[in-house]
Amino acid sequence: MSAPTRRRRWLTLCAITATAGLVAIPASAAPGPHSGSPFGARTLARLAAERQQSVGTMSPKVKEDDGDDGNEADEIAEGADQYAEARTSPGIVAPGAYGAAWTSLSKLPRTGGSWRNITDLPYDSDDARYRDIDSNSSGGSGRVTGRMAAMAADDDGYVYAGSAGGGVWRSRSGGGHWQPISDRLPAQSTGALALDGGGRLWLGTGEATTNADAYLGSGVYLLSDPHHGTFSTRSRVGGDELESTTIHELRFGGGKVWAATSEGVWSHSTKKLSGAWKLEYAPNPDYLPGGPKADDPDAAYKNITNDIAIDPKNPAKVVLAVGWRSGDDYNGFYTKDSKGAWTRISSGFGDLPTDADDVGSVTFARSADGSRYYAIDQSPEQLNTNPDSGLEGIYVSKSGSPSGPWTKIADYQGLAADGSALTSPGYMPGVQAWYNQFLTVDPADPEHVYAGLEEVYESKDGGTSWSAVGPYWNFGFSCWSIDPAKQTGDCNPTTHSDQHGVAIGSYHGKSFVYVGNDGGVYKRPVDGTQDSSGHATDWTSLNDGTIDTLQYYSVGIGKDLAHGGVSVTGGLQDNGQSILRSNDKVMGSNFGGDGGDTLTDPANGCNIAEEYVYLSIQVTQNCAVNDGSWITDASKATSYNVAPADNATSEARFIAPLAADAKNSSTWIAGGRHIWVQTHGYAIRSGDEWKSVYDLGAGRTATAVAASGGKVYAAWCGPCNNQGFARGISVGNADGTGWHDIALPATGANGTVPNRYLSGFAIDPKNADHVFLTVNGFSRQWTEGPGAGVGHVFESTNGGTTWKDISKNFPDVPADSAVVTPNGGLAVATDLGVVYRAPGRTSWQRVGSLPAVAVLQLKLSPDGSTLYAATHGRGIYTIKVRDCD
To answer: pTM for this one?
Structure first.
């Protein structure tokens, strides 16, 4: 949630591809400044001012030479693009790649042992122990978990939460005491959840928030008895038509279920579940899979649809909201004409815009009695020209028909004045409306409306007035205090920021509204109370530890000298850095924002280096324990910003590589355009202590680094997208000597390193010249790009001079990192789990039985006996190394 420690750029691009990640949004962006800000260099005033400078600089595609102009939106899109690049370059990946990979992985023989989730306990973002300069503690979000993309609830106390990457969860008690119910599916990314009139639960897979770490789905699934059953592959609706899409909404009408997807609007009978889905409308069908322009680099942007509004009085009257959030000629609202052809609506809509420049991401909501329709509209024009907000407005159709006429009932200035925490120019309500958006109506009152953007808003009079019942956070309000004894001062708890899903249901006869956001699930009574500022006084976090959907990028382990055992930390999407010490019953958060890579001293788990984005690094030597006294005495701060220079020049990737020498934990290597080395370990206090030992060259940036005994390996790409993608490996010494580029065939010929994204190194601890390389993306069977080649794991025994493909039966799935185990085995993290090659073997096994969740990093415990897996959607898992053999 917190603002960055560097200049951040705000942009609007998403590299939606046919496979994995879409767009990025470090939802860690923050609202306006306040006196006594607890964020030091992460001041929100800077963020707001830099966003104002960015007006007019946005474009629907990130340019390779895009420099750091202070535009936070550029960073968001760039991060999105980079996450996708790793999985798609050098070309477009054909639909079905992940499904085939999951089938292949599932057929592998399994190792012994079972994974143990160590983060399945509450995670307190307001932990009073950690109120240091880069912590969000005391903001008011309380207990959190990973991003929730969709919600559903009924009147029997059953609540369903669909996470971004950790599947669907069920509560039988009005929230809390959660159980996973979709672990058997090949996709754990949720786009939409909906209960139909018969109480059946529909799941649309593939998150549609168009952010960097959103994964595509495998279609729509139906659970006929959601109170007791679980989803299975046999419950998929239709055929494979919706594989490798994202699904924004599922709507019902006229005996059909309608799906708004990244590849047009589709429909299917709700009675007969077999048979193909029908493509109702795609604005640019030539760009769909199988079409003549399917390989066009812009194909993924050409058929994005957002929602479907069905007239309650006449289900034959349907309005489609169609459009890419950054703008395209096809953006607009569509309905059928007298001849049955879908036609753009150009007039008669009232206040709701119909021009393509003003229609972006849209969400509809209908009242239960059919008397009202509501809509939120995000505007590409506003996104590209207004530094304050991308929100066009909130609207109502008092006729109850989606055909209007529509009346505007809210804009960002009005919402900012209604108790919002986002009141500073450059960061106001709707600044991320393309990412944060929900809308629903109280079933008992057609004028009682909830809208979600960065915050939660409520209107009890049909939009005449609004209250920010769930402000972004409590910083900036007079009730706030950093005093640990007061938690967040006199402020009431709020929700986590960045809203995505909403539902209204009942438990024991009382109605509640449930919201899903970047911090998990929260609820409050529908007839809840507010304070004098309009903030709700009765939010309850439902993130009780039984629901673990935390999205880790990294993990670090070190001895807990104070309590025995080990301390485990890790960087998270929009939930900062978690820390779990050996005596903890509740995890704490000692850094804020988006957590990237992590270094932890094996000998002392309170020595931690945490990466934000673009090599923005903070270091602490006391676990960042702090009571907030630094606010009046700067010398009391216990963490320090130590970013190397590539951070300031934006010549590092969004999640940039960082590593410690395996033989000397005081020698660190960081990769941007340059390979940086510092030798002061956790005692480093300034970014000036880094030394550039090698310049990879203009336009190149490091994708992986590793070192052992002073020998350093660095992988790079440049250009990094599929327009001329190139990759390489450089090798040298930490003292700056001996650096050279390894000759790799540009075409990625058979048996050689493919022309794909190089994601990680694992060095043999007994011999620094013996090294393994992991390769992301998919083989040429799926990737239509030059030199895509084959293979995901390669081995060198001569310091990287030559490489041998050792993939054998390794599934064709993106490989993200690897680690050599003490017995000489090799464990590899992939987008669908962990695989292992035992010492002396050539074939691979599946490690344990994780759901289809991405594992982005593997680390070993200080004694080498335990393997830690940082999953991006299901927390951190461990397994004993001995059980893998």
So the answer is: 0.92
